[in-house]
Every structure is written in structure tokens, then in C-alpha cells.
């Protein structure tokens, strides 16, 4: 479970990109969105989404392609920013947005990237219950809640590590060309992740 949690993926890419765009607070906002999605996924697993998946397995495929499309969309936006007219800042979408939209975007993207993440759904539904030993006091609901809570806390801790690291590195991307290259790199990474998810 720990290895699954600390391995960087799409969520890490989204959190890091928002950290580089707007600093520590924006990265934390994206992480809070992602972990609210984790908590929502955990709640759905507890109330019996596994029975729904068993009855309608196509739901996982729909979730998978939905997540891939969302990642691809975020990646395309990042590439568009990288190739915008010279003189416009990286992450220009923020410049045209209202303060409310600026605050909502990282939270929304963090939430959606995990809410549409079929790997997290499968992990909560099919993997976590296997860590509970039958006959022990924590084999039931309390055990599930504990393991889900541990996963969410460890995920937030990992995000804080990346946020702190890349917040310190923001000064390296003050010039236009490095910022454009960074935005292009994030776009390519997210689109590649989307393709990988779709072909899984």
C-alpha cells in the first residue's frame, strides 16, 4: 500500500505544476482537492460501490476513459500555454481569470484527477480489503476506515514533500523560455499518462 501511495503519477504532476505556477498555497489547494477525492472514493467503497462494479463492470472502463480524457485535456491546456504568443506569461490562463476562478482551478483539477482515477477506485475496492485479517477487531468497517485514512494522510504527506521541493525551485523558472519548456514538459507528461491509462 505504501509503495502505491508514494509512487509519483498524474496527481503528483498536477500538484507540482500548480506549485510551480502559484507557489506553496496553490500546490496545497490542488492536494486538498485530490485528497477530498480520495476520501470520496473511500466513502463510495464503504457504502458498496464494489457491488455496483461487480454488477456493472463496464463502469470501470467508463471511469478509466473519463480520467484519461480529463488528463489529456489538462495536458493540452498546458501545451497551449507553452506555445502562446511571445510575451505572455506561462500559466496565462490565470491572468484572465477572476480571483475566485484562480482559487478554484487547482482544487478542481486536483479533485477531478483523483475522482476519475480508476487505479484509486480499484485500490480502495479490491486491494485495501485484502490487508484486513478475518477474525481480528479491525477486520470490518473500522479496519477499512483506518487503512483509507492512512492512505489519505500518507498521500497528503507525499504531496507536501513535492510541494516544498518545487516551491523552492520556482526561482529557476523566472525567465520566459524555461517556463515555456516546463509547461510543455508537463503537457507532454500528462498526455502520455492519459494515453497509458486509456490503453491499459
The radius of gyration is: 18 Å
What's the total number of strands? 0
How can the largest sheet be summarized? none
Overall body shape = globular
Strand content: under 5%
Mean pLDDT: 81
How far apart are the first and last residues' alpha carbons, in Å? 20 Å
Helix content: over 70%
Number of domains: 1
Pattern of helices and strands: HHHHHHHHH
Uncertain parts: 87-93
Structural class: mainly alpha
Please count the helical segments.
9
Description:
- The chain is an all-alpha fold and 200 residues long.
- 76% of the residues lie in helices and 0% in strands.
- The chain has one domain (7-199).
- It contains 9 helices and no strands.
- Helix 3 (24-47) crosses helix 7 (118-127), helix 5 (58-82) packs antiparallel against helix 7 (118-127) and helix 5 packs antiparallel against helix 9 (176-199).
List keywords for this structure.
single chain, 200 residues, mainly alpha, 9 helices, 0% strand, globular
Summarize the model shown.
The protein is mostly helical and 200 residues long. Helix content is 76%, strand content 0%.
What are the SSEs and their pairings?
Elements: H1 2-6, H2 10-22, H3 24-47, H4 49-55, H5 58-82, H6 99-115, H7 118-127, H8 141-168, H9 176-199
Helix pairs in contact: 2-3, 2-6, 2-8, 2-9, 3-6, 3-7, 3-8, 5-6, 5-7, 5-9
Amino acid at each position: 500500500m505504501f509503495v502505491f501511495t508514494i509512487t509519483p503519477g498524474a496527481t503528483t504532476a498536477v500538484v507540482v505544476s500548480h506549485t510551480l505556477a502559484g507557489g506553496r498555497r496553490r500546490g496545497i489547494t490542488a492536494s486538498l482537492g485530490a485528497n477530498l477525492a480520495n476520501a470520496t472514493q473511500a466513502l463510495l467503497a464503504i457504502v458498496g460501490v464494489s457491488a455496483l462494479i461487480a454488477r456493472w463492470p463496464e463502469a470501470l472502463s467508463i471511469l478509466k476513459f473519463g480520467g484519461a480524457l480529463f488528463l489529456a485535456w489538462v495536458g493540452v491546456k498546458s501545451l497551449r500555454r507553452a506555445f502562446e504568443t511571445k510575451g505572455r506569461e506561462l500559466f496565462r490562463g490565470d491572468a484572465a481569470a477572476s480571483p475566485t476562478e484562480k482559487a478554484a482551478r487547482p482544487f478542481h483539477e486536483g479533485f477531478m484527477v483523483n475522482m476519475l482515477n480508476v487505479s484509486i477506485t480499484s485500490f480502495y475496492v479490491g486491494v485495501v480489503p485484502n490487508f484486513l485479517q478475518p477474525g481480528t477487531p479491525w477486520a470490518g468497517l473500522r479496519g477499512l476506515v483506518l487503512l483509507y485514512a492512512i492512505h489519505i494522510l500518507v498521500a497528503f504527506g507525499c504531496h507536501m514533500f513535492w510541494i516544498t521541493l518545487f516551491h523552492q525551485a520556482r526561482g529557476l523558472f523566472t525567465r520566459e523560455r524555461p517556463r515555456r519548456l516546463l509547461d510543455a514538459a508537463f503537457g507532454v507528461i500528462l498526455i502520455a499518462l492519459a494515453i497509458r491509462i486509456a490503453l491499459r
